[in-house]
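Query form — protein Putative acetyltransferase

QUESTION: What is the three-dimensional structure of this chain?
INPUT:
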Amino acid sequence: MIKNFNLNNLDNVMKIWIDTNLEAHNFIQKEYWI
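ANSWER: The structure tokens for Putative acetyltransferase are given below.
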């Protein structure tokens, strides 16, 4: 389900973002994303 963004969920959203970027672009160093 897609919900409106709530600032209280920022940590969870960023965790999903970094995890999926690292998995999808494993040829790019982690430091690039952070």
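ADDITIONAL NOTE: The chain has a mean pLDDT of 92.
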